[in-house]
Design a protein that fits this description.
Elements: H1 2-16, E1 20-28, E2 35-42, E3 57-60, H2 67-73, E4 80-86, E5 101-107, H3 108-112, E6 117-124, E7 130-136, E8 153-159, H4 169-186, H5 193-214
Parallel strand pairs: 6-8
Antiparallel strand pairs: 1-2, 1-4, 2-3, 4-5, 6-7
């Protein structure tokens, strides 16, 4: 199908520039087929050090949004809307494992009644693997409302783990050295002067006594 070819070419161009791409797919109902809805492009970065401030570029594929199909089932509270992304971002030279995805499920009516406005957050670890998906819609309870919106209004964000402060090894070593020095000083010989040097004092004392007795 032509949209598959377009998605493939887009991934090829992006990868040639060293960027990362995640394809967002969706479907309406458990038995429907998955369709590529959009592409999320991450900046050109190394997967071993994905910074938390990277802002993704969300590129929708309008012809695959199937908004009218979603609106037609939005009045049914028991109809579910599915979204998924591959478990790993793709970069140049990598092969995507299309059998491994991270997905989420929400009620279709919550998307329709929010006028197709929602936030999609992709959670990734420091190696580029997707660890979770979350979606927020301003509608908390479906009431049967319809919408005149003709396309999704999606705010996409990508969350990376925040790197904590590294331990201050130098300060720790200094502290341990001070403790060891203090213990060493405390364990030094605390005997009196006579107790420590009696073997030198005794011969002198005996000689003195003997010389006094001879007189």
């Amino acid at each position: 199908m032509w949209y598959v070819l377009i998605s493939f070419l887009l991934e090829l161009v992006i990868c040639q520039h060293g960027e990362f791409i995640l394809g967002v797919e969706h479907k309406f109902g458990a038995d429907a087929d998955w369709i590529r809805r959009a592409n999320v492009i991450l900046p050109s970065i190394k997967q071993s050090s994905l910074p938390a401030h990277n802002t993704p570029q969300y590129i929708p594929i309008s012809s695959n949004e199937n908004v009218e199909a979603l609106k037609s089932i939005g009045g049914k509270n028991d109809t579910l809307y599915y979204i998924r992304v591959p478990h790993k971002a793709v970069e140049e030279g990598e092969q995507l494992d299309t059998n491994s995805y991270v997905s989420l499920v929400v009620r279709a009516c919550s998307i329709v009644e929010s006028d197709l406005t929602h936030s999609l957050n992709i959670h990734m670890d420091s190696t580029g693997y997707v660890t979770g998906l979350s979606m927020y819609s301003p509608v908390e309870e479906c009431t049967g409302k319809t919408t005149s919106a003709t396309s999704f209004n999606t705010h996409c964000s990508v969350s990376f783990p925040t790197v904590g402060a590294s331990p201050d090894v130098h300060t720790f070593i200094q502290m341990k050295e001070k403790e060891e020095k203090k213990k060493s000083e405390e364990s030094q010989d605390k005997r009196s002067f006579l107790a420590k040097y009696w073997m030198y004092i005794l011969p002198v004392f005996l000689l003195l006594m003997m010389s006094m007795g001879g007189q």
